[in-house]
Please model this.
Amino acid sequence: MNQEEIKDTIRELITEIAEDMDVDEESITDDASFVEDMGLDSMALLEVLATMEKKFGISIPESEFPNITSINKCTDTVQKYLSEKS
Amino acid sequence: MQSKRIVITDVGTISSLGTGFESLNEAMTRTPQKSTVKDYDFHQLENDIECYSIKDYDPVQILGKKGLRNKDFSTKILLGTIQTGFEEILSNTDEYNKPGISIGTAFGSIQSIGDFLSDSIISGVNSVNPQLFANTVINSPTGNANIRFNSKNLSSTIASGFNAGIDSLIYSYNYLRKNYIQNIIAGGLEEISYYALLGLLRSGMLSNSGDPRPFAADANGVIMGEACALFLMESEESARERGANIIAEIAGTASSFDPQTAQNGKSDGESGAFAIKTALEEAEIDADAIDFIASGANGNPKCDKFEAAAIKKVMDTKTPVTAYKMFTGECYGASGAMNVACALSDLKNKKISGKAKPYQTIDDIPLVFEPQYKESTYALVTSFSCEGNCSVVILKNVN
Amino acid sequence: MLMSENRVVITGVGLVTPIGTGTDVFWDSAVRGENGVRPLELFDPSEYRTKTGGEVRDFKAEDHLSEEDINRMGRSGQFAVAATRMALNDSALKVSEENGYRIGVSMGTTMGEPQILEKAVHIKYDSGSEQIPQNLPRQYPCASIPANIARVFKIKGPNIIIPTACAAGNYAIGYAFDQIQLNKADVMIAGGSDPFSGIAFTGFNRLLATTPDICRPFDLNRSGMAVSEGAGIVIIERLSHALARGASIYAEILGYGLGCDAYKMTIPDPTGSGGIIALKRAIKNSGIAPDEIDYISAHGTGTKENDKSETLIVKEVLGEKARTTPVSSIKSMIGHTMGAASAIEAAACALMIKNGVILPTINYSDPDPDCDLDYVPNRSRSTDLETVVSNAYAFAGNTSSLVLRKFKG
Model:
């Protein structure tokens, strides 16, 4: 799976979560901060973490939780653990 | 000391009889329509199961898109019922003065609990969605309602099985009589879940003829329904102060338990009779003041026999008995509250409803098969479960 | 002062906990500060990040229930019936034909009998739903817990279960208190019960809310809560009824208060709004002043969020007095017993009042600037207790506080 495909998958999830929270569509960008720009709460971040693990078949250690901050950062994290896996 | 009078000033409901009290009034004049269920997210039933399900309810239309993701159907029914039934009082009060919320349910979030478990079995315990874990506590729909409508006053959930809906009213009645808060949105909620249906199938409680025949001498089981029925409850004084329309007074309540029913299903109805007598005493009326009995009979032979025995011990043998489950199916934790909603509808419309081809009843219970048109003052609502719980509420028409 | 007819007292206690089954065993362990959060043995945690929790290992169902009853109910019901038997014996109360209707049951839980549902769903996956035993489904619903108590002891009064998650015990005891004050009963068997739940363990693990080792409430390095199991039952009784039969009295219940955060499903309101409402109401309903409180039994789960907001709640309501009021969490010893937690804590408060000892918060070493109260660290403390408050909060935002006082005639 290439970087764009990973990013698309994550973007789709974030858009779904953000829409449910009535976040302005324009503030959903690849660099936008989940917490500061979009107002996601810690529960939503835990869902992002869990969904990434499930969708990409990887195990992300708890220490990476602070890096669940934007679509780009998430993509990096997923790539890191995908490459470790292979 | 004179106790506070507790009254009902508003009704909200979503069920197979439609959305809102008006819709329920109207649906009780028609032959009820069944539908079938079979497929669920994680499981499939072997055959179509006939039931009285909520078909025409679109949560997004009533609640908007926001905040519904990750909410289970039970929660969506509850939120929709509150939104459509109690918008006025909720929008006119601040967060510390909004009505408290008390919800009765038998199985609660069992669909969410079972699905969370199924997901953990299929995908692994580390692959479950943590947001869905929040749905696995039985008080999740109630808590979600407190959050959505920003009510900090009270969030209670009552789970006494078949009796939960009526027990939630009794709980709230007692809570209000203690003067703890001003008003409570109280009632019952139950969805038709795969896991509850599976349980009913395995324990042989579902009717195989697909026809619920409450109190029938030859009844063979229940048809499941799903519903939410809620009532705005407050003191008479509070209702008068804010100029609210009083629909009915809760004149008396009582609950008891029958250990014999719980032990082996063989009961002489004494505990149920005790509950009826206690409620009559609280309402300060005699048995013959009751105009009709809104029974909880559902077509489960053991349950119905126990209820018939209790009624016969206390009540005038000619007092008409309704079984609204002819219209709604067995809605478990919502059924007691649905019975109250249907009784309020009958009190309002000056009739006693029924809708079935006449059949022979247990102990010759004078069951209402076709509507009787007459004005009533007192309705006795009973809920006697085969687990042993006996709960009774007396409604008084004050109009 | 309330009229004596309306006064309500605790006359019996029954406990099933990870640091002991039976009131004496529990109390001796708790005074010593025993840690009941250990590597799991009855439940296989190998797939999980957390491998510890609280298990009741000395519970033998056959010591408390007949074989027929053991087969009729799940672990939650077994705990509840066992604790009820202990509490009834402790209060020397005999249930009879005459008083059966004047005794009721009011219980709390989180999800009924989760082990029954787990068993049924596993059978479905392993060998098909037709293999699920016919008598199993009826054992699952919450209602089976108080129904089993009433069935076994032939109790005919009001029977209810209030599943308000981790605050359920306080809700159940509060309702029982009301039932007596409203003259619906003379005696209520009140409490909470929850078995170890794989569903809860999975969920709390996934929320990263479980501690990887031990539970350290209010400590700077607290690392989460510990999923646990147990039951607590108190016999609560109209004072005149207790005096007439010469019952021995642990403590008086003065009142309780409920509220709701209305904030998030799984995170407490950081401003403590619901907890403040509950504590203020409990104080008002009990007719006491905030500075009369001698001790607070905290919800104290050991999560970052709870312990910080609970500290805030105590400071907001008690003001300056908060600094000198001892606050401790027995969850440091027994873990989080969910729907049983506040019932066990209410029973523990009754024992603390009776014995003049405050139970400690164990595993405490580094103070947290956000949690700056006297948490009774590591060692129990002998002192005379008059007025005691027990807090309990829950998933979905439920909040509650219960007020107990040393009984004086």
